[in-house]
Amino acid sequence: MMSWMLCKNHACLMQDLVSFSFLIYSLATSSFILGGSLFNAIDTILVIGLGLALLVIHTSFYDCVGTSVGLVILVITITCACLIHDRRKLQHIKNQYFRRHGGLLLYEEMKSKQGLAFKIFSEEELQQATNKFDEHQVLGQGGNGIVYKGHLKDNLEVAVKRCMTIDEQKKKEFGKEMLILSQINHKNIVKLLGCCLEVEVPILVYEFIPNDTLYHLIHGNYNGWHIPLVTRLRIAHESAEALAYLHSCASPPILHGDVKSSNILLDSNLSAKVSDFGASILAPTDETQFVTLVQGTCGYLDPEYMQTCQLTDKSDVYSFGVVLLELLTRKKPFNLDALENEKCLSMRFLSAMKENKLSDLLDDQIKNNENMGFLEEIAELARQCLEMSGVDRPSMKEVRDKLDRLRKVIEHPWTHDNPEELESLLGESSCVVISEVESTGNFSIERKVVKGLESGR
Hints:
Layout: H1 2-33, H2 41-59, H3 64-100, H4 103-112, E1 119-120, H5 123-129, E2 138-141, E3 145-151, E4 157-163, H6 174-182, E5 192-196, E6 203-207, H7 214-219, H8 229-248, E7 254-255, E8 264-266, E9 272-274, E10 281-282, H9 303-308, H10 313-329, H11 345-354, H12 369-385, H13 396-411, H14 419-426, E11 434-437, E12 442-445, H15 451-454
Parallel strand pairs: 1-5
Antiparallel strand pairs: 2-3, 3-4, 4-6, 5-6, 7-10, 8-9, 11-12
Protein name: Os09g0471600 protein
Binding site for ATP: 161
Domain Protein kinase: 133-415
């Protein structure tokens, strides 16, 4: 009799198990088909796990082993459900960040622009590329963020920048701005390859430039290394070329916002590449867009920008003027350890120009009779860039053109005694006159007769 009862109970339980399994299958299927409208993935797992656990416990009521197995299944089920819940919560947060930073708009724009070499990276991809943002991967850091070296899955080396902050007003437009910046294609500008928008502050991915920065070349371990004037002038011209492109050729115009020697990278040939658009903004189209928090680096900041909080193209010009001073003097733009009146390089330079003591500031490596005419011209250009009022400063196009003419003259010394050849080299509109310095047998540019150079014609 007892045997018959047990068989009957087991038969009933097996029937219940089949019915329960069919129910679970139906619920799970409906969950996937209806996109989770009846039961989400967590609910399904909980129902299945709880059912199986109770079933095992019920069928093994008098079996300690069976009861233990049921409890284990129950614990595993709840743990898995919690992990999935946390993961779904994290994904929800990432989706919120993605939408907040204009990711949907960026994605749609990317689909409409076939062949665009720009990628939206996931946070997981960039963590793998940088070994979870390991400190040993750090290439450099500043007020705007930290830059890491990374390797993508296709073994492409990249520079990954984690920005510190982003203007609240710019978050919605960030994706759109990234698309515009990604279309910049200039030999002297570091290429923006992609970005990650599913984090609180977007992460930028640039092409990797293997050499150091201009700052390190001037002030770093290379400090004793001789850097010829022609090399300095070429780096200055290439950097000015890049900024002039951003201001005048990009559509819409782009302001860099943090021009400094550490944001000018150098490749294996010491060719300049302007980088770090962490502070970049699209040129404002009306006055209401000008107001922003002051960003930048001490020693390079435009005084007018600090007073008005209005970043303009002339703010970049001022900062570039400081870079010119670094190339001329090999001194840092700001030195906390110096005397009070010598801490700021730009103020010290302007004072020296007024007192006709430029020679005291110039780097000894390039200060000689042969170079003096060129050094005075570059110094005068730097002085114009450092004018207190932005309207009195030249444009980056004018700065580029002046440096281009100086570079051509210094790179073609055989034209100095041939005015016609020099005129052909510089262009018909130039009015540069080269005169021989009889006392030394060298050549220099007489500043009083270089009106064509001064006017940027």
